[in-house]
Structures are given as structure tokens and as C-alpha cells.
Design a protein that fits this description.
With 1454 residues, this protein is mostly beta strands. Helices cover 5% and strands 44% of the residues. The strands form 26 sheets. Strands 6, 7, 8, 9, 10, 11, 12 and 13 form an 8-stranded antiparallel sheet that branches.
């Protein structure tokens, strides 16, 4: 349906009426091009007075409240409000973003200032501490941060004559800051007796350490260093809001409406009183002033901008006007002229010319205005007031025609009938009054029936009907003029409406998003001619829909600029423009309507618009109907990688179980086993939900990932090496351009990206802190220095890293829809693309942010889901593979062509020097020329083409291809089925590695006398694997149902398999053909075991709580074990084949006699004495120690005992494989731990000779083979990188001194009650020491009143005495180490005690001190480099109650 697709026409912002004067200061400047830069709402405006033209910067997502101009007067920095506010640095010529600074401030950015050379930017936040932050803005990096003040800061400035000095001012304070290293240190200004302590509103720095500041009382305070030296009283008669320094001197502006110009020594030059000029008015207040040459710019509280030429100072020119403070709701357009009328709570009604972009008339009313309407001939203007009255004015001269007050509540909507006969007036008391225009607006009717306030009205074309909407979303129709309600559906059908401004009704159903409040959309206006509809909502968004818009959730185009709720929106009379007004930002936006036919000629518009939309979550919606997602992609988008418990939660969980830990530590526990295991081979490859994760390394090995392991496979030797640095599922892999390093990203609460060396298998860098839940895509830059990563959080955050430094360069929200791929531009390291569900986005780095532009599809196609992407032969060319099998060719952000490449999704694409290779769901590899015009060759993956040297069997023809890579004369292919294939360009295909397909793997059995094992999975396959050096799959059989368990018969000839539907079968172990099958149960068969010896009986356990015992020879069920209260998890036979041990989901350990299944009660002590043929149980005294401290959170899922009954291997829910000494008696036994599986280990089995351990990962679908190494073998090996620590913290064994130091807590001391109560301010922080004479005398007389002060003139004051530290006895040795050093060739020693660094001269015994610390110093080091002689660094503790960072001081000692 048409309404389900976005309109192909477009809106372009043409003009913004207004200027943000309220609650802002110093936000108006001349640029180098003599243009004027300022802001209003969420838009930065660059206005050219010569051309009367505006340019717009729309990179913000909320109200801009601060602005600073770069010294080059081209770049502009703007800061916004919001939960996560950010700063944009942008170019005033191109209005493009240069840098984004984010992730530091909260609430908003109050002030900004560039330093003298423009390299650094300082910002002040609106948080509770008014944080001051210094940025290297080009790199988007924060250099320093410190709490600003406990109250608001109004202005901040760099001292342009002293490096690294800043000054800030605000409520009753001024602070002088010095930046040393990365520490910002403030000193409060000392007011002394020179001036009153009061609020400072603005400041400017001058030479000779002088600072001038404007105070709330209108005085100017002059500071030398940190001391107030004089005041210029009466500079203004009220608060000075703005001070601007320039080459000629200083300009100040204040609440008194005056501009004063001062010379460089702050002697007055002239005064300009704007209130006395022609354009002036009483109450005019100046908020911003900019003096440049002979021109002065002035911004006022009431949203006006004046330009004053100095020699004609009495004739200021009014450049811009807007509504003042108070909400703006009223909007109407003239029926025949390009005029718009607005009315506001500021009580003014204004008429704007849409052609001249100017205010042409203004009239002040007695009451706030809430709505407006112009009659059909354009003569009368009706205004609805907040007090329930309405007024009619003549448009020509704004004189009053009539004023009527029939209601007590606000008039929210009024409209003239199309024939001009009636005026309908809708009130907040839920009534609509009808007035006759010709009868001097006599009331002729009333419409009653709404149950809430009236929000919208529309007349029918014949003026006989009126439709209304109310606050409850109810739509009613009335017959005119009487006001009788129309309920007949037949009568309703035939009505044609003259306008459509109602938000409820069949024609506008599609404008409502799902789950939205009925009041979210404030205004609608239909354009019948263009068949489009424009809406305004509470989120500051103007949207364009098709009209009529019948079905909910219709697609739209979206435009941002207004900061908060957009209260009204209207088409101009000729549909050339859309006018929108902002409630809280009280601005008027004029948008140019660009129809579809003109859009084709104006494609250059699109990039700027999409840039503007880039900062919102779901910028432009889809341009057309999108086909249903392919089943594979649908399945993948529904995958969630969230875990209930992440491995990084373990320390916290252990902390919660500390009491248990202590009680266990007091008991003697068995040490961990001497044996260890080493990962030897993994069968498996992660293909089902990953793409492009398979590459050749520099030396021709193959690198890929499975579970939590990075695998390097040598295809000549059929061996594997492993990167085991991850602890959860790896989801993505990228290779460095030199093919020697690899980056892998994993799942996790705070997931990490690891960069590691394929030769040494050592990590080079670990990057974390910016993603949540997981990292789904990574890519290196062409020079290999940068790395891009994408997270799987709700915003799919994109991060750009300098990976060697471990430094985040830029970050941005990627998309609300899933992103499948990120690719960095090989020609420009600052550019990249992301592609995913229904989008393709082109990004460029801007400081600490990334600016995204959505791919523009136009009429060439639709917004398909993109599965893969690569760059082409130039920086502008990009190619993407879609879910429908097409390859899209992009130039810049525009789609220029589509080529049909595959049947079904194109999952992988690889760029060659001259051409491309693609792979898709159709199982075909295609080679293309360099422009995708010709397919040069195709390779179909078929079983018939499998070469003899293959390490396994292909499960099906044409498996879905998920990864493709070229190198060493071959094409490397990864499939969804977990297979890695090498395709020779001449045709033969070699299978190198394979594993199970998607679906959990639980069933595992090792052969009784051969190095082979069997596995069965939910992927409905039974497989036999060779564990000898050939490492391949020997046989596979497809099953009708998935399976969860399997077991070889004692002679190795039969294989029993339990299936998920309650049936089981016995197959020939060599051919996998059926021998016999049974189906006695309905639930999953969870375990299956042959009795030892001849294998006479087969025990079959199911999830419906029963174990069936079958006679293998007679193929009959001979017994049933009953009595379990939950599903069966594990079963074991004793060596005689007469007794069964059973574990259940309720953690019961039960015993049954075979073959009848009689339940037996056996005491725990006796269980040990029984000889068991196998031990896979996880319950009982013998394995009590295998349960971890956090056993309530995680389960031990499997165990297996070696033949010599010495070592018990276990697998658990957190993916750990552990080795315990058997029997593992006593709680919390010691163990060796190995991480390779990502989530739950479902099964573990030793081979017949205990030489190998085989483990299964449930969700990671991998089969891992570990070699068992005895103690003696381990000693020969240099290291054992996979082996974990043995929980050393539980073992004690510390020296007593070490133990005591280990338990010292510096936070407890800082937070505990002081030994003696202390109040007041530390002496060195006090502003001044009161002299003896000023102290109150000791007297029994009643105290003097506070205001009465004695006259001290003539009394001699004593000088203030100071204490100087001369000698410090003591040295901090009790809890510190390596903190004494020689300096100056052994003449001095340096050490510390308390909060003092001490330089002690050995010859004289004198000491000198470093006293900048304010708490205990804990560490000290001396720089050994000859370039930095005598440089010392010391670190201190700090009270956390202050929430400050601990300090590190670096000082020079002479």
C-alpha cells in the first residue's frame, strides 16, 4: 500500500526566524567571512547580511546553549543540553562537522572557549559539580577534567597572554586555573575589602595577569593574579551579561540595555543606550555583544539581533527578530499571500514574509495567544487567548475589530469556514462555539459532545460540517451552524474536507507510531495537491508522510532542528513551504518543499540532509516496501547473546560467597591433580551467525574462530595452534593488511576486542570499555594502525580505535537495527561504512565522534538488508551484497546500480586487485570483473567435486556460503554448516575442517579400544570422528530427530543413540546403519549406557523421570527404574553390570538394581566401596569438591573419570573444563581450569587409554580434543599457557607482614569518623587569616549586633605570622616499597612521609619539601632518563567521599 512507503518528495530548511537570547550569553560573533554566527533551538545559524541568506548546522539533537568561535573565526564550537550532551566543532563555510566531543559531560554544556592557538577547547558542564574539561578537540580526546564549583559557572576563558591558564566565574565566585600535565588546579579569587563578594557573570583576560569581570550589580571588577585590585563602579546600572575583548579594547553589555566600549586599559570610550534608539523599548536587556572594527553585534533577551555601526550609533539596524520567552503555539498562513502569522505566550502576534524572510508587522496583545486563523479573503485575523477570550484584528493595520470572552479556559483552536461565513472556536473546556462573521461575530451555535479539551478543527469544503479532535483522541462530526452531532456513517462518507489538520481519523491512521501516547503528535496538515502530509510531534521532529495515510506505522521522512516539542505546522497557501513552530524554543522554521520531479535534479541536497538526520536514532525511514527477510537472516537477527551470568561476574559472585570460602579455607583440601591437559585439535567453525571470518595468514596458514578460541590451522601438517585469550564466544574476526595480526571480538558484559599475533599467538592489545553484550564486527584500516568495531547493544555502537595505544579515537551510535559488517576505507583512514538490516551508512571521523550519512537509494532500488560490503578501486566506490541476492554499487552515498549476483542473500564479498569474489546462500562462489558487469567464473560447492585428500564429508550440496577469502592460488570458503573448504581455481574442492551445524551438541561417546569418538546433536546428525593425527570426520548419518546422547557397546561394534522425541536406536558403529530402534518415551532421551563386560543390558534414561533397561540380545525391555522426582541427567553401571547410579535434575543421587530396576538405598559411605565401570556422575561424596562456591548460579553439567581412577574431568555452565584429583571429597576442591568453550560444556569423555580428553560445547557446537599430560611431561615443557591459576587467594600462605599489608584499606580510613571532630577550612585554603584585632573581644557584655561594626581606623595591625615547615621526622616504610632514591649524584636522598615529599641533603642534614599533595603519599619514583634529571612522581590516596580522582604529581627536585 502506498501509505506504507515514505514519500519521494522532500523538505529543505530555508530559513529560521529567531535567536536564542534567553538563558544564554556570549553566543553571537562575526566570522572571517563577515557572516554572523549564532544559534536557535537545535540549529547553528550562519547568516550573511550582504546576501540575506542563512546556512544551517544541524548536527545537534537538542537545544544548543553555548557557542565559541575559533581564533581563525572559521570554526565554531557549540554545546547542547541533554542526558548525554556533546560538543560539535564545525566549519562555518561548509557547515560540516569537524569534530564531536562526547561521553564526559551530563545535563548540558554551559560554556565553551578556545585557547589562543585554537588547539584546545575548554568546556563547562551543567552537572552538580559544574565539571571543567579541557579537550584536544581535533583528536576528540579529553586532556584534563576537574570539578568546577558547587554552584553555576557562567563564563570561562583562556588567559591569552599566559599559557595553560584559565579563568572561570559564576555564582559568588571567580576561579583562576592552571593546567599542569593533565591536572587542572584552581585558586579562588580573593575579593578582600576592595569589592563585595558577589556573582560574576562574564570576564575577559588582558596583559600583565589582569582579568576584567562583569558583576551582577553592574560594576566591573579588575583582578591582578588572584587578587581583586580595583572596581569600576557603575559601569552599568544592572548586571553585566556580556564582555567581548578585541584589538580595539573591550565591549560590555548589560541588563540596562546599554553597550559600553572601553579602551585596552579599560577607560571608557563611549556608551550606546539601545532603549533610547528608534528600535529600542523599555526593558531591553543585552545578552551578547561582539565588537569587530566599526561594527558591533548585539543579541538581546527578547531574541533580537542588532548591528550597530559605531559612527551611526543611534541608528542600530535590526537583523533578526523572534518571539520572546514563553511557549509558542499559534500559527496561521494567509490564504492568498506568502505570509505566516504566529502568536505566543509573550503576548505578541507577528506577521512574517516568507519571500523576504522578514518580520513585516507586530502587535502586542493583553493576553498570551494560543491559536490564530485568517479568514478566506485575508482581511480578518482571529486570535484565541489563554484566558478564554478571542480577538479579531484587521490584517491591514492590526486594529481591533471585536474582542469576545464567552469562555474561562484557553482557546486552543479556531478556524474560519471556507465560505467565510462562520468562525469555529474550540476551547479547553471541551466545547466549540460557532460565530457568524457578518453579524459582528454573534454566537450562532455550539458543538457539545467532547469529553476533553478541543485540539483540532476542520471544515468541510461546503462549510456544512465541522470535525473536531479532543485530548482523548476522540473524533466527532457536527452539522453547521447549529452544532448537531453527525453519527450516520453514510452521511460521513460523502463529506469532502477543505483542510485536514486533525490528528485522529481514518486518513491519518498511519502517522501514529506503535505504542505512542495519543498526545505525542501536536499538529498535522495535509497537502491534497502533492498527496503528502506533514506532522509535528513532542520529540522535536517534523515528518513527511504520504496522504492519505491509512495503515498504522507508515514510513516517513524525518527532519530535525527544533529542540523540544513542535507545537504547530502548516503548508503555505501555494504549498511551496512548510512552516513549523517550536513550543519551548519559540522559533519559526520555514522549510522549502522539493517535489519528486525536482528532487532528481537536486540530488546534492540529500547528503546534507542525511548528515542533519544522522544524529537521531532512526534517521530516514525506508523508502519503499521491503520484502520479507530471508529465513537465515531472520533467524540470525533473533539471536541474542545475553548471558544470565558472564565470566566477568565471577569475582563479584565469589565475593558474595566469602563466608563459604573462609570456612572451606580453614579445612585441609586435597591439592589439584598433577596431570594437566593441553588443547590439541578443535572440530568446528563458527559459520551459522558470522560472516567473513576466515583468512589466509602471511605464511599460508588459515585463521578462523570457533567457541572462545582463535584457531590457526596448518593445512599441510593438519595441525592447529590456538589463541586462548578470550573467555566467551568470539563473534567476529579481521586480519591486518600485512596478514600477520588478527583482531577478534567476543561476547561479554563489557566485551573486549583482542589484537594478537598469528606467529607467537600472544596478545598485542586488548580493547574494552565501549561496547555492551558483544562485538559483532571488526575491521583494520589499510595502514593497519586503526581498528573499527561494532557492538550488539541497542544502538550498535561503532568505535574507532588506535589499537596499539589502546585508545578510543571516536564513537557513535551505529543504528537501532542490527549491523552485520563494518569496512574501513582503504584510501581515507577517517572513513568507513556499516551495513545491516535495511540500511547502508557512510561514516567519517570527526574528532571524538563519527558522522553518519545514510545511503541514498533514490528510484534505483529499495532499502534492502545489506549482508556484506567492500570498497572498490577509488575512495568513493563501495559495493554491498543484499539479502535478495543483488550487489549494490555506490558512489559516495548514492546508489548508482544494482546487479543480480546470487539466488538468495549475498553473505560474503572479497575485493581483489582486479575484480571481486562473492558467495551466497545458493552455495555458489562467483568471480567478477572490477565493475561487476561480467561474472567471469562460478564454482558450485558439490559433494561430487570433493578432492580425495579431504578431511571429512560434505553434508549437502550447495551449502550456504558465509565467508570467502583468496590467497595462495586458492579460494577459501566457510559455510553455514561449519565447514571450511579450499577451492582450487581449476575446480577441485578440499574439505579442511568441519564441525556440527547449528543446534546444541550434547551426545558424546568414545570408542572402547580405538582413538575415535561419536557425537550426536540437535542438528539431526550422528557423526564419527577420528582422534588420531588425521583429525577428520569418518562418517555421518542424518537422523529424523536431533539427539542428546550416544554410547558404544563394550565390543565397539554397536552404537546406541538417544533422540529428542523419546526414541532411541542402535546402529552399526562402522556403517551407521540401523540395527534396531525403540520408541517407548515421549520426552528427550538424556543418557544411554551399555552394561560393562558383554554389554548384555542397555540403560536408557529420559526426561520423563524413568530409566528403561533393555536386554540387547533379545531386544526387549526387561525393567523400568522409577522413583526419580525430576528428569534424569547421568547414569553409570557398576563393574558387575548389576547396579545403576542415577543423577537427576533435582540433584538426587539414586541407585537401582538391574535388570528389573528395583530402587536401592545405599549409604554414602558404601558408594565409595562399590567398583564403578564408569563415573560420569556429578553428585555424591566422591565428587562433592567439584561444585564451585557459586554452585547456586552455575551447574556442573558433566564429568568423566580416568581409567586409573585418579583424575576427574568436569564441564560446567560457564564453559570451564576442570581437572580434580579423585575422589574430590570436601567442599570446593582445588582444580586446574581451562577456558576454550564459550558457554556450557555439555559433555566430557576420556579416550579408552586416557591419552586424550574430548569435550563438547553445547551452544558453540565444537568438539575439542585435549591431550593428557602427566607431571613429568609438564616439567619438560617450558610453559603451560592454557593452564589457569589454582585459586591462590583461597590458599593463604602469605608472610604475616604481607598479609597485614594486603588487608590495609585506605578508603576505610578516609571514610571513617575522625579521631577528633574537625570543622572549617584548611588554613592554606582560607581566603585570609583574620588578625587578632578583628577577633571578638572576650567580654561579659551582651554581644554587639551583627551589622554594627567598630571603627578600626588608626589601630595598628599586627602582621600575619606564617608557619614554614623546617624539618620532618619520619619515613613511610610500613606499607610502601622502593620509595627511597639518591638524587644529585648521591648528595641528596628523596623519600616521603605523610603528604610531604622530602629532599634530604646528606652533608648538611637540611630538608626541602614538596607540599602540593593533600593526603598520604603511597608511592614515589624517580625518572632515570638523562633528559629528565631530578624529575620525581608521587601518588597519593584521596577520600572517596569527595568523588575525586587520586592524584599523581610530577615535580622537579633541585
Amino acid at each position: 500500500m502506498a501509505a506504507r512507503s515514505a514519500p519521494s518528495c522532500h523538505l529543505r530548511l530555508e530559513w529560521v526566524y529567531g535567536y536564542r537570547g534567553h538563558q544564554c550569553r556570549n553566543n553571537l560573533y562575526y566570522t572571517a567571512a563577515k557572516e554572523i554566527v549564532y544559534f536557535v533551538a537545535g540549529v547553528g545559524v550562519v547568516y550573511s547580511p550582504r546576501e540575506h541568506r542563512q546556512k544551517f548546522y544541524r548536527g545537534h539533537s537538542d537545544d544548543i546553549i553555548s557557542l565559541a568561535l575559533h581564533p581563525d573565526r572559521v570554526l565554531v564550537a557549540t554545546g547542547q543540553v541533554g542526558k548525554e550532551p556533546y560538543i560539535c566543532v564545525w566549519d562555518s563555510y561548509t557547515v560540516q562537522t569537524v569534530s564531536v566531543l562526547k561521553d564526559v559531560h551530563t545535563h548540558g554544556i554551559a560554556c565553551l572557549a578556545f585557547d589562543l592557538d585554537g588547539q584546545r577547547l575548554v568546556s563547562v558542564g551543567l552537572d552538580s559539580k559544574n565539571a571543567v574539561c579541557v579537550w584536544d578537540w581535533k583528536r576528540g580526546k579529553m586532556l584534563s577534567m576537574a570539578p568546577g564549583h558547587t554552584d553555576r559557572i557562567f563564563d570561562i576563558s583562556w588567559d591569552l597572554y599566559q599559557p595553560n591558564k584559565l579563568v572561570s566565574c559564576g555564582v559568588k565566585h571567580i576561579k583562576f586555573w592552571s593546567l599542569c600535565g593533565n591536572a587542572l588546579t584552581p585558586k579562588r579569587g580573593v575579593f578582600g575589602k576592595t569589592g563585595d563578594l558577589q556573582t560574576i557573570l562574564c570576564l575577559a583576560c588582558a596583559r600583565d595577569e589582569l582579568t576584567y569581570s562583569g558583576a551582577l550589580n553592574g560594576d566591573i571588577y579588575v583582578w591582578k593574579g588572584i587578587n581583586l585590585i580595583r572596581t569600576i563602579q557603575g559601569a552599568h546600572t544592572a548586571g553585566i551579561f556580556s564582555m567581548n575583548a578585541c584589538e580595539e579594547g573591550f565591549a560590555t553589555g548589560g541588563r540596562d540595555g546599554c553597550i559600553r566600549l572601553w579602551d585596552l586599559t579599560f577607560k571608557p570610550i563611549t556608551v550606546i543606550d539601545l532603549r533610547e534608539t528608534e528600535q529600542g523599548y523599555k526593558g531591553l536587556s543585552v545578552r551578547s555583544v561582539c565588537w569587530r572594527g566599526d561594527h558591533i553585534l548585539v543579541g538581546t533577551q527578547d531574541s533580537e539581533i542588532f548591528e550597530i555601526v559605531v559612527h551611526e550609533r543611534n541608528k542600530p539596524f535590526l537583523i533578526m527578530q523572534g518571539h520572546c520567552e514563553g511557549e509558542l503555539w499559534a500559527l496561521a498562513v494567509h490564504p492568498t499571500k506568502p505570509l505566516a502569522v504566529t502568536g505566543s505566550d509573550d503576548r505578541s502576534v507577528r506577521i512574517w514574509s516568507l519571500v523576504d524572510h522578514a518580520l513585516i508587522a507586530r502587535c502586542n496583545m493583553e493576553e498570551p495567544i494560543r491559536c490564530a486563523a485568517v479568514n478566506v479573503d485575508g482581511i480578518h485575523l482571529a486570535l484565541g487567548m489563554k484566558d478564554g477570550s478571542f480577538t479579531v484584528l484587521r490584517v491591514r493595520d492590526m486594529t481591533e475589530v471585536v474582542h469576545i470572552k464567552d469562555r474561562k479556559e484557553a482557546i486552543h483552536e479556531l478556524k474560519y469556514s471556507p465560505d467565510g461565513t462562520y468562525l469555529a472556536v474550540g476551547c479547553n473546556d471541551s466545547s466549540v462555539d460557532i460565530y457568524g462573521v457578518a453579524q459582528r461575530y454573534k454566537k450562532v451555535g455550539e458543538c457539545v459532545g467532547s469529553i476533553s479539551f478541543i485540539t483540532h478543527l476542520d471544515w468541510s469544503s461546503d462549510s456544512r460540517y465541522l470535525q473536531t479532535n479532543d485530548g482523548n483522541g476522540k473524533r466527532l462530526l457536527f452539522k453547521m451552524p447549529g452544532g448537531k452531532e453527525v453519527t450516520s456513517k453514510e452521511e460521513m462518507k460523502g463529506i469532502h474536507w477543505a483542510s485536514w489538520t486533525c490528528v485522529s481519523g481514518l486518513e491519518v491512521n498511519g502517522i501514529w507510531p506503535k505504542y505512542s501516547d495519543i498526545n505525542d503528535i501536536n499538529s498535522v496538515d495535509g497537502n491534497y495537491v502533492g498527496q503528502v502530509l506533514v506532522t509535528a510531534d513532542d520529540y522535536g521532529v517534523v515528518k513527511l508522510f504520504r496522504y492519505p495515510c491509512l495503515r498504522k506505522g507508515a514510513k516517513f521522512r524525518k527532519y530535525i532542528g527544533h529542540s523540544a516539542h513542535v507545537t504547530n505546522v502548516r503548508w503555505s497557501h501555494d504549498y511551496q513551504w512548510v512552516i513549523s513552530i517550536g513550543g519551548a524554543d519559540h522559533s519559526v522554521f520555514q522549510w522549502k518543499f522539493v517535489p519528486e520531479r525536482k528532487l532528481k535534479d537536486a540530488l546534492h541536497i540529500a547528503p546534507q540532509e542525511s548528515l542533519a538526520e544522522s544524529n537521531s536514532d532512526d534517521s530516514d525511514s525506508d523508502l519503499s516496501d521491503v520484502p520479507e527477510l530471508d529465513s537465515e537472516i531472520e533467524q540470525e537477527t533473533q539471536l541474542t547473546y545475553h548471558r544470565q551470568v558472564y565470566k566477568e561476574d565471577l569475582p563479584q559472585l565469589k565475593e558474595q560467597c566469602k563466608e563459604k570460602q573462609k570456612s572451606a579455607a580453614s579445612k585441609r583440601r586435597e591439592r589439584a591433580p598433577g596431570n594437566s591437559i593441553r588443547l590439541h585439535f578443535i572440530h568446528g567453525y563458527r559459520g551459522y551467525d558470522c560472516r567473513s571470518n576466515l583468512f589466509y595468514t602471511q605464511i599460508g596458514e588459515i585463521v578462523y574462530h570457533v567457541a572462545a578460541v582463535g584457531v590457526i590451522y596448518n593445512r599441510q601438517q593438519n595441525t592447529q595452534r590456538f589463541y586462548l585469550g578470550h573467555d566467551d564466544d568470539i563473534l567476529c574476526l579481521a586480519i591486518h593488511p600485512l596478514k600477520d595480526y588478527v583482531a577478534t571480538g567476543q561476547v561479554g558484559r563489557d566485551p573486549s576486542v583482542h589484537v594478537w599475533d598469528t606467529e607467537t599467538i600472544k596478545p598485542l592489545s586488548i580493547l574494552k570499555g565501549y561496547h555492551q553484550y558483544g562485538v559483532c564486527a571488526v575491521d583494520f584500516s589499510a595502514d593497519g594502525k586503526r581498528l573499527a568495531s561494532v557492538g550488539i547493544d541497542d544502538s550498535h555502537t561503532v568505535v574507532l580505535w588506535d589499537w596499539k595505544k589502546g585508545e578510543k579515537l571516536s564513537v557513535a551510535r551505529g543504528s537501532k537495527d542490527k549491523i552485520f559488517v563494518v569496512k574501513m576505507n582503504p584510501y581515507v583512514p577517517d572513513k568507513l561504512i556499516t551495513a545491516g538490516i535495511k540500511h547502508m551508512k557512510f561514516w567519517r571521523r570527526a574528532g571524538g565522534g563519527l558522522i553518519g550519512r545514510k545511503g541514498y537509494v533514490g528510484t534505483l532500488g529499495r532499502s534492502d538488508t545489506m549482508m556484506c560490503a567492500v570498497y572498490g578501486w577509488t575512495e568513493e566506490m563501495a559495493f554491498s551484497g543484499t539479502s535478495t541476492g543483488d550487489v549494490c554499487i555506490w558512489r559516495d552515498v548514492f546508489l548508482v546500480k544494482t546487479v543480480k549476483a546470487h539466488d538468495g542473500p549475498v553473505f560474503s564479498m572479497h575485493a581483489l586487485e582486479k575484480g571481486f569474489v562473492t558467495g551466497g546462500k545458493d552455495g555458489v562462489v562467483a568471480l567478477w570483473d572490477d565493475s561487476f558487469e561480467r561474472c567471469l567464473k562460478t564454482y558450485a560447492i558439490k559433494r561430487a567435486d570433493l578432492a580425495p585428500g579431504s578431511k571429512g564429508l560434505l553434508l549437502e550440496d550447495n551449502p550456504s556460503i558465509r565467508a570467502i577469502s583468496l590467497g595462495h592460488g586458492h579460494i577459501l570458503v566457510g559455510t553455514k554448516n561449519g565447514e571450511i573448504l579450499e577451492v582450487d581455481k581449476s575446480g577441485p574442492i578440499t574439505l579442511l575442517v568441519q564441525g556440527h551445524m547449528e543446534g546444541e551438541v550434547w551426545g558424546l561417546a568414545t570408542h572402547p579400544y580405538l582413538p575415535i569418538c561419536a557425537t550426536v546433536s540437535d542438528d539431526k546428525t550422528l557423526r564419527i570422528w577420528d582422534l588420531s593425527p588425521s583429525h577428520c570426520m569418518l562418517a555421518v548419518r542424518k537422523l529424523k530427530k536431533g539427539g542428546r546422547c550416544c554410547c558404544f557397546s563394550p565390543d565397539g561394534k554397536a552404537l546406541a543413540v538417544g533422540l529428542n522425541d523419546g526414541s532411541f536406536l542402535m546402529a552399526n558403529a562402522d556403517t551407521l546403519e540401523d540395527l534396531v530402534s525403540f520408541h517407548h518415551r515421549k520426552d528427550i532421551i538424556s543418557d544411554i549406557q551399555f552394561s560393562p563386560g558383554s554389554g548384555k543390558y542397555l540403560a536408557v534414561a529420559s526426561h520423563d523421570t524413568f530409566i528403561d533397561i533393555y536386554n540387547v540380545v533379545s531386544s526387549k525391555r526387561v525393567g523400568i527404574c522409577k522413583g526419580a522426582t525430576s528428569y534424569i541427567t547421568h547414569i553409570d553401571w557398576d563393574t558387575r553390570g548389576k547396579l545403576l547410579q542415577v543423577n537427576t535434575g533435582a540433584k538426587e543421587q539414586l541407585f537401582f538394581e538391574a535388570p528389573r530396576g528395583k530402587k536401592q538405598a545405599i549409604p554414602s559411605v558404601e558408594v565409595e566401596k562399590i567398583s564403578w565401570a564408569s563415573w560420569t556422575s556429578v553428585l555424591g561424596l566422591c565428587c562433592e569438591g567439584i561444585w564451585p562456591i557459586i554452585g547456586e548460579v552455575t551447574d556442573v553439567t558433566a564429568s568423566c573419570l580416568t581409567s586409573d581412577k585418579m583424575v576427574l574431568a568436569t564441564g560446567d555452565d560457564l564453559g570451564f573444563v576442570k581437572l580434580f584429583r579423585y575422589p574430590a571429597k570436601g567442599k570446593f576442591g582445588k582444580f586446574k581450569k581451562y577456558v576454550a568453550h564459550s558457554t556450557h560444556v555439555t559433555n566430557v569423555r576420556w579416550t579408552y587409554d586416557d591419552s586424550m580428553l574430548v569435550t563438547l560445547g553445547g551452544a558453540d557446537m565444537s568438539l575439542m580434543v585435549w591431550t593428557n599430560e602427566t607431571e613429568s611431561y609438564r616439567e619438560r615443557r617450558s610453559c603451560d599457557s592454557e593452564e589457569s591459576d589454582i585459586d591462590s587467594e583461597e590458599d593463604g600462605g602469605y608472610d604475616s607482614d604481607v598479609t597485614r599489608e594486603n588487608e590495609i584499606s585506605y578508603t576505610i580510613r578516609a571514610l571513617s569518623t575522625n579521631i577528633r571532630p574537625m570543622f572549617g577550612v584548611k588554613p592554606h585554603l582560607q581566603q585570609k587569616e583574620p588578625s587578632v584585632d578583628e577577633r571578638p573581644p572576650v567580654s561579659r557584655a551582651p554581644p554587639q549586633p551583627e551589622k554594627l561594626q567598630s571603627n578600626n581606623v588608626g589601630k595598628k595591625k599586627r602582621p600575619i605570622e606564617d608557619l614554614v615547615l623546617e624539618l620532618a621526622f619520619g619515613y613511610r616504610g610500613r606499607d610502601c616499597r622502593n620509595n627511597v632514591h639518591y638524587l644529585n649524584d648521591g648528595d641528596d636522598i628523596i623519600y616521603h612521609t605523610a603528604s610531604v615529599g622530602i629532599l634530604h641533603n646528606l652533608a648538611t642534614g637540611t630538608q626541602s619539601f614538596y607540599q602540593e599533595h593533600n593526603d598520604d603519599i603511597l608511592c614515589l619514583t624517580v625518572n632515570q632518563h638523562p633528559k629528565f634529571i631530578n624529575i620525581v612522581a608521587t601518588g597519593q590516596v584521596i577520600q572517596q567521599i569527595c568523588q575525586l580522582q587520586p592524584r599523581l604529581c610530577i615535580s622537579g627536585m633541585q
